[in-house]
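An instance follows:
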Amino acid sequence: MRSSTSANCAIAAVSAALPSVVVSPAKPKSKGKARSEAQPYREGAGYAIRSRYKGNDIYLSGHPTGAAVKKAARQRRDAIDDHGAPQGRGPDLTTAAQAMQDYAMQRLRFKKGAVQEAVRINNYLRAARLSTLLVTPLKTVLPASGVTAAPASSGAKASSKEKKPLTVYFKVTLEPYKSERVIANGLHAHRKVQLTKTADSRRHRAVLAGRAMGAIGRADMQRYMDAMRDEGVAPATMKLEQAMWRGLFNYAFSKWAWASLIDNPATQLEMPVVENERKRTMSHAEQSLLDAALLDCRNLLVAPVLTLLRETAMRASEPLEHACWRDVNWERRVLCLSDAKAGKRDVPLSPVAIEVLRNLGPGEPNEPIVKITYDALKKGMERACERAGIKNLHLQDIRRTAATRLALKTGNLFLVKALTGHKTDKMAARYMQVGADDVVNVLHAPQEATPVATVAEVEPPKSAVPTPVENEPASPPMFTLEQMQAMAQLAAQAAVAGLNTGKSTPPGPVQIPLLTLVPPPAPGPSREGPSLSLVA
């Protein structure tokens, strides 16, 4: 015990002799100099800037001043904060051709017009020497799992319940670029003339295909459209080209988060007015000639399909591509199309249409109603028109003929819309081609003679026939023949007396003396009627 006490005292003495040491908390390691904002630099005739923000490379060039390029970089960072990181390489490093290829691979399989749009996109892919699109229709249309389409009035506040699942119609693949296209024999001269005629627009197309999406302006698009117009391209074709570009920029802005494309350069362009409305319909005389010419057609399906189109006003694609035997409702006499061009609709069937369907089938539920291609149907009709001497009658005119005939028969726009499947009155009215000749035919149509019934054939209404009562004396007539003759004489005398007074009377109606009835003096039934007296 004594030894431990002495040891503690020794330790205390040594500690007092040592200098005091103050232990301060450890300082954090220095991170070095704070990273400064990227500065613009001279590049060519303008200014450029390179930076990295939230894992995204930002490279901007071609701005007139350093302040302008710094402002653009700041806007790009704000866009990343608001919309997220842009997909892919962004609008400044992705060419229009590459963007079209990516867009086609993501969206074309859901579009019913994918084949036509793929043809337009392939023109840009060939100009950029990229792999081209190959669109193959699916034998069985499949619903896309987990993929939905925004409603027509889509917006940031649109409810998810309004979205509907998409349907896959095609298989879209890529095939390697080929420098030389295969031209059918006999078309080489036509192809050479076509290339010469469209040289200017193809040059503009190649420039746009190789330019970055963010560098394409409205002036570039306008020059391209002007070149197409100078070459005589149809206004409807130009509208389709503009629609493809407009859809591409909208999709890149909304789905790929390319916020710099908020101003769509494919909008607000000076475009020609589309005036492609046809008014051609088939007359009844032409129908008789066409039916006779179709009897010589080698393809036995051309005649019944054309008759079905004429009776139902269907689009040619609806019975050829969409209608199966399970869609025919024989009791309701309608054809239930589950997925036509304008969506689901019921097609009314006339007696002639039902007869055509009975002659064609019925077949298996999943079997198509008719097995004929559009090209075969179109060519068969063209040759039949040549044999019949009918000119300028197209396949689409059959649908217009059916709508016009129903309009002339009923005069009801709602019935025409139900027949054609149009959603708006404007589109339905385009198919109702009622002209001056139709009005003349109605005005000069022979009127049916209305039969005139004799007095003996007219049966008086039951309410006008009095019910006879037993032992009831017959009621006397109101006036006898002698009394009515006296009434006429008194009226004539009164009129003559008023005219022979010689007094000047102001213009106005002539006052005729009144006739009063004097009842018989004795009550009870009497054969004599009431007497007459003249009252001035």
